[in-house]
Amino acid sequence: MDIKKIIKQMTLEEKAGLCSGADFWKTKAVERLGVPQMMVSDGPHGLRKQDDQADHAGINESIKAVCFPTGVTVCSSFDRDLIREMGENLGEACQAENLGVLLGPAVNIKRSPLCGRNFEYFSEDPYLSAEMATSQIKGVQSQGVGTSIKHYLANSQEHRRMSSDSRVDERTLREIYLPTFEKAVKEAQPWTVMCSYNRINGTYASENPRFLTELLRDEWGFEGFVVSDWGAVNDRVAGVKAGLDLEMPSSFGLNDALIVKAVKTGKLEEAVLDRAVERILRIVFMARDKKNPKARFDREAQHGKARQIAGESMVLLKNEGILPLAKKGKVAFLGAFADKPRFQGGGSSHINVFKQTSALEAAKAQLGSAVTVSYAPGYSLTEDKVDRSLIQQAADLASEADCAVIFAGLPDSYESEGYDRSHMRMPEGHNVLIEEVARVQKNLVVVLHNGSPVEMPWLSQVKGVLEAYLAGQAVGEAVVDILFGDVNPSGKLAETFPVKLEDNPSYLYYLGEKDVVEYREGVFVGYRYYDKKNMEVLFPFGHGLSYTTFSYDNLKIGHSKIKDTDSLTVSLTVTNRGSVFGRETVQLYVAPPAGDVIRPVKELKGFAKVALEPGKSEKVSFELEKRSFAYFNTVINDWYVESGDYGILVGSSSRDIRVRGSVQVKSTVTIPWKYDMNSLVGDILRDSKKAGLVKGLLKSMEEVFGQGSGDDGDAAQDAITDEMKDAMFKYMPLRNFACFGGGLVTFEELQDIIYKLNET
Ligand code: BGC
Predict the structure, then answer these.
(1) 42 lines ligand 1 (CB under 6 A)
(2) What's residue 59's pLDDT?
(3) Ligand 1 centre and the CA of 417: distance in Å?
(4) What is the rounded CA–CA span in Å between residue 210 and residue 198?
(5) Could you give the CA distance from residue 752 to residue 210 in angstroms, rounded to a whole number?
(6) SS3 665
(7) Which of 79, 125, 229, 256 is catalytic?
(8) What DSSP character marks residue 311?
(9) pLDDT digit string (tens) for 127-178?
(10) Fewer C-beta within 10 Å: the chain N or C terminus?
(11) Whole-angstrom Cα distance, residue 328 to residue 341?
(12) Cα separation, 340 vs 375, whole angstroms
């Protein structure tokens, strides 16, 4: 296909027109030149293909499809292969439905538990998020269908999402908010990237050349096209120049006309427009060429896959010997979610499911006659209140049973796209139900359906908690699989559950001041903050229990000393010490030494999921590289590894480190440094090649100021230690050697020293 030739034959109007949608979901065709239409569809965890009556808010119905577990759920599997398979299933469905691009994955970093779209997003950790996004993209695209990784960039709240300005410093962008997009682009080449609604440091994402071109294309090598989030275009011509290729949905010719006018008046070079057209056409033709007319989409088979994924993603948060439940006796299922589970979120990812199972139905279908399951709703799904009579009915049922399972969490009215929560509490009706039932039934388990962390004031009163999140349409079967031991839970939290909202690092600034949203916590997002502050959390990042236990032994670190350009192999042996089959996510964290920049205590740099029969062992290996040790240094505008000893911590959660070792890493990069009158003596002393130039001066200074100390009866004076003196001199700028030094050195002599200090 000679795309350049097609572009030459297109009129200016046709080219401008191609840069916006034909309608809500399709690109424009240019029939006379054989350019086909391409249809796109939401979303990250299932198809929301709408034909007529299109909208992007999930209001109108779409075709019947399969709802897989949402982003937060599947990410908790920590399983690259599993999410890749989910991607393959989604890609297969897209092929069958004649779609060119699936609008996902959604990968914004979780700054706060309050974000209304946290259920769609993966994690608070950029490494985990990047690994999972890359695998999902590879899965979808292996089926000859494109993806649209979204929402690029720094779009971690819904409040004022179309006008807010995320103010984020460079190091934080590089270390926290960019890596998921970076890795996905470098390793999986999504066909498209969707820019977000918000501004970033003052400029709308849809017209931001730094992110749309300099980083995305020039630095990372992105080859596809950039599409606007639906309605994210502010200044269309600025957008084309910055690298926004396709505007979605249609702007009914308004913005196309602005592009035409800008070209005609010389404000936009036609070659820049041609570039956007070429990028769009490349993908449109690729979608056409990869179309598989024979593709079928077996909804029942996909439902089975959704069940498996849900089972391997849900997180067992607490288990005081109550789970798995015995498959005999009387079990009370309480809470309306037992009958009508919340399994997906509201907004553009909302799927019209072809079927869906509740735990109540699944229990009846899956468990033998030895188990009797009774049910009481306990709360209303339509009214947000404490209903004492429903609670009493549930408590009565619980008291007659051998054990009770309460299904609780967040109803649809609590979290959704376009809206952020204002607190982290569950409905009072759910909390009171748990507390009242706990009074009469000690064998109590809570199953949670929610898209983001909640406070759990009742935690000490229940024996077990299963975090099911929003687990997709097969949620009922997957919950029963876990509750009764047919599946051994293996999900791990991809986010920290703080004890209370106020503990969250973004708490003081979240939602911002009108449109200004400052990301003041910087790189200290999630566990990076809680660990640094040594804070108690409800459940830490990476936490998740199993019905078996695993031991970690034999940690081997490839070398004791490496250079920052070397890679490092770390291995260990994991053994299933229990009596049932289980999966374990082994997590590797790197702990940097104290240095010039303020860094997290440790950061996730590797994970692997292993499946082990009882008594069996497996060797798990990780490959670490420069980025595993580096931080983003804004002086050299690059990743930089400070020389020093780095801890290698391997464990079952961020707060359950089982084996540890260390490696000495030596930097091969010198940070260019310019000395001047304000340079501190201490900094110069650390530079071994230059220290000699100031040592003499320092000694003289110490002699001058050292006099008068000692035992002279002045208590404050006598208390001055050598360390204190040392600190005072070390943090003194060079200029003070002339001024304070009383003739030790002249300004001219200092200039001479500075000249020598700056000699290379
Ligand atoms: C959402 C996107 C979605 C698009 C199309 C927007 O409101 O932010 O995630 O893909 O609508 O439905």
Answers:
(1) yes
(2) 60
(3) 9
(4) 15
(5) 41
(6) strand
(7) 229
(8) H
(9) 999 999 999 999 999 999 999 999 999 999 999 999 999 999 999 999 999 9
(10) C
(11) 24
(12) 12
Give 655's contacts (C-beta < 8 A, 6+ positions apart): 537, 540, 542, 543
* Nearest-10 Cα torsion for 734, 735, 737, 743: 150
Q: How many CB atoms lie within 10 A of CB 381?
A: 16
- Cβ contact 244:212 at 8 Å: yes
Is 499 exposed, middle or buried (CB count within 10 Å of its CB: 0-12, 13-18, 19+)? middle
pTM exceeds 0.85, yes or no:
yes
Beta strands in 285-328 (DSSP E): 315-319
Distance 291 CA to ligand 1 centre (A): 24
| Mean of pLDDT values over 7-19 | 98
What confidence tens digit (pLDDT) does each residue in 324-377 have? 999 999 999 999 999 999 999 999 999 999 999 999 999 999 998 999 999 999
Read out DSSP for 55-88?
Answer: -SSS-S----B--PPPHHHHHTT--HHHHHHHHH
In whole angstroms, give the CA distance from residue 192 to residue 137. 11
What is the model's pLDDT at position 737? 87
Taking Cα atoms as reference points, which of 728, 569, 739 lies closest to residue 648? 569
Tell which one of 60, 121, 228, 230 to mutate to probe ligand 1, the residue whose CB is within 8 A of the most ligand atoms: 230
Is the distance from CB of 72 to CB of 307 less than 8 angstroms? no
Closest CA to 493 of 585, 601, 417, 597: 585
Q: Give the domains, in start order, of the chain with CATH numbers.
A: 3-63+74-289 (3.20.20.300), 299-495 (3.40.50.1700), 550-666 (2.60.40.10), 681-757 (no CATH)
Distance (Å, rounded) from C-alpha 591 to C-alpha 521?
Answer: 19
Given a cut of 90, whether residue 675 has pLDDT beyond it is yes
Q: Which residues, at least 6 apart from 201, have a Cβ–Cβ distance to it below 8 Å?
A: 165, 166, 167, 168
229 part of the active site? yes
> Measuring from atom 9 of ligand 1, which residue has the nearest CA?
348
> What DSSP assignment string belongs to 347-359?
STT---BS----H
Measured CA to CA, the distance from residue 613 to residue 626 in angstroms comes to 35
Residues 6+ apart with CB under 8 A from 721: none
Instruction: Please report where in the chains the tokens 């005081």 appear, as a residue.
Output: 320
**The three-state (H, E, C) secondary structure of 164-229, written as one string:** CEEECCHHHHHHHHCHHHHHHHHHHCCCEEEECCCEECCEEHHHCHHHHHHHHHHHCCCCCEEEEC
Residue owning tokens 């000393």: 561
Q: Are 451 and 415 in contact (CB under 8 A)?
A: yes
CA–centroid distance, 349 to ligand 1, in Å, is 8
CA distances from 124 to 110, 128, 452, 742 (A): 5, 8, 11, 55
Phi, psi of 679 (to 5 degrees): -65, 140
Token code pair at residue 227: 């599409």
Residue listed under structure tokens 């079952």: 652
Helix runs in 441-539, H state only: 475-483, 527-532
pLDDT interval class at 721 (50, 70, 90)? confident
